[in-house]
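Sample intake sheet
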Amino acid sequence: MKVKIMNRDSNIYTILYASVMVVLVAVVLAFTSQSLKSFQKENEENDKRRQILRSIKVQVPANEAKAKFNELIEDAFLVDEEGIKTEGNAFALDVVEAFEQHTYPVFVARIDGQIKYIMALSGAGLWGPLWGYVSVNDDRNTIYGADFSHAGETPGLGAEIVLPTFGGQFAGKHIFVNNEFKSVAIVKPGKSVGGQDYVDGISGGTITSQGVNKMIFDSLHGYVGFLTSQNQ
C-alpha cells in the first residue's frame, strides 16, 4: 500500500507545522517556568531577608541569608494602628498589601544581646516604588540602622539611596522629640530643619529624596501605636 506524503510546500503543511511548533514551545516554556518558580520565590525571599538584615547593619551573601536571618530574627508579627498584635504572616505578606489593611510588619532582632525592632517602609519615588526597613533600639525611638531600595530611580542620582553612605546617616536619629512623633526629615545637603532630627538628601535627586522623606513619615506614622504602647 502506497503511503501518501503531505506536500511540504503546501499551505496546509505550513499551518500544521507552525501550529505544532507553537504548542511545543508553549509546553516547554510552561514547564521551564514552573520548574524555576520555587527558585525564583527563594531568591525573592532571600533578597527580602538581606534587606531586613542590612537594616541592622548585617551584610551577608544570598546563600547565607536564610541561616543568618533565622539566627538573628527572634520574632516577626503584624501590629495594627493601636500597636496591638494581629493575625498574619509578617514576612510573607506584601508590605503594600499590609499597609492597605492598616497592619504593619515588625521583626525583632537581637544584636550583641540588645533588642532591635525592625519596621517596613513603602512609598513612591520619581520613577517607581520605593521601599526599605528601619530598625530602632529597645527604647523604640533611637534609630539603629536603615536600608532603602527602589524600582527605577536615576543611576548616579536618586538611585544612590541604596548606598550605605545614605542609609548610615539615620543611625542615632530620633523618631520622637519630646514624646511627639516627628519622623526623620530629609533635607537638601547643607540645609537644616528645626524641631526634629534630619539627614542630608541625595544631591541632584531632589524628587527621590522627597519621596523617601514622605515614605518614612507615612510608614512610621502607622507604627506610632506600637512604638509608644510599651513606653507609656
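Comment: Helices lie at 11-54, 62-72, 95-100, 164-167, 206-221, 224-229. Residues 64 and 165 are 24 Å apart (CA to CA).
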